[in-house]
Amino acid sequence: MTDHGAQVVVGVDGSEGSLVALRWAAHEAARRSWPLQVVTCAQLPVAIEVGMMGVSGFEGSTMDTIVKDQEGVNQRAVDLARSLGLGPNVKVGGETILGSPAYALVGAANEDDLLVVGATGHPGRMSDMLGSVATIVAHRAKCPMVVVHGVPRSDNEIKRIVVGIDGSPGSDQATAWAIDQAVRSDAELVLVHGWVYPYAGARTGVSEPRDEMRLDAMRTLETAMANVRDQVPGLRCHSVISEESASKAIIDAAVDGDLVVVGSRGRGGFSALMLGSVSRTVVQHSPCPVAVIRTQP
Questions:
Q1: Per-residue pLDDT for 161 more than 70?
Q2: Looking at domain 8-148, which of 3.40.630.30, 1.10.3210.10, 3.40.190.10, 3.40.50.620 is its CATH number?
Q3: From residue 34, how far is each of 78, 175, 220 by CA, in Å?
Q4: Which residues have a Cβ under 8 Å from the Cβ of 184 and sit 6 or more positions away?
Q5: SS3 letters across the chain
Q6: Yes or no: domain 160-293 corresponds to CATH 1.10.10.10
Q7: Residue extents of the structural domains in the chain
Q8: Given this chain, do its domains 8-148 and 160-293 carry the same CATH topology?
Q9: How far apart are CA 293 and CA 111, in angstroms?
């Protein structure tokens, strides 16, 4: 780990998916004028049994080869990031960590950092089709994290940010992060609220007709819009309400988006280590990168 303040930390394993994440992370570091820290992990393949090889053979050959290979991956990734012309304010560093990729990445990022992972990668390495690594990182990261997937873009500009709204504390914290990102990127903010009948929101009367549920959903979105305008007057912002599940409403709005922001927990959330059904679905199926903001007590 480097000893400076906030930084963008990105996991790279040499796969195309991780290199897409690297490019996104590099441009985000430039937007924030933060250092970029490239992390690779050296882990003994699951298929290899130490007892079958003998301790000396394992220590003197296999692990050294794995470490050397990952150090080469790391150096090539650092060189690639430096070639992107990020400007003099962005310092690029790299490190290869021994151990499980998911937990190594979680340990490599502090609370003030931004952690970036790719949605696809080599099976058993940084991630496999949003498998164990991205999922564990999303569950356990101490800081905001971004899962990068979708069509690779050369500039990685952020001009339209979509954030899911449900009136929960997690949604409020995700919105606050999205506002900061919109100001930083000079982007438009799109607040999205999906609802289905019967609606899970606050009740305004004894009966539960569809029209009443829609009015309640509209009030939730209007409150969120008012809060945005109070915090940043003049920010380009509009809202979308959809009689669809929350995850589908967000994913549909993300078709023309550059970044989606979701809270890790909302209404109907589970324990602190669960990502929640809405966030999980959005992370898996969004057409653009997704930022997951952990709900703080």
A1: yes
A2: 3.40.50.620
A3: 15, 22, 35
A4: 31, 32
A5: CCCCCCCEEEECCCCHHHHHHHHHHHHHHHHHCCCEEEEEEECCCCCCCHHHHCHHHHHHHHHHHHHHHHHHHHHHHHHHHHCCCCCCCCCEEEEEEECCHHHHHHHHCCCCCEEEEECCCCCCCCCCCCCHHHHHHHHHCCCCEEEECCCCCCCCCCCEEEEECCCCHHHHHHHHHHHHHHHHHCCEEEEEEECCCCCCCCCCCCCCCHHHHHHHHHHHHHHHHHHHHHHCCCCCEEEEEECCCHHHHHHHHHHHCCEEEEECCCCCCCCCCCCCHHHHHHHHHCCCCEEEECCCC
A6: no
A7: 8-148, 160-293
A8: yes
A9: 11
* pTM of the predicted model as reported, rounded to 2 decimal places: 0.83
| More confident site: 15 or 212 | 15
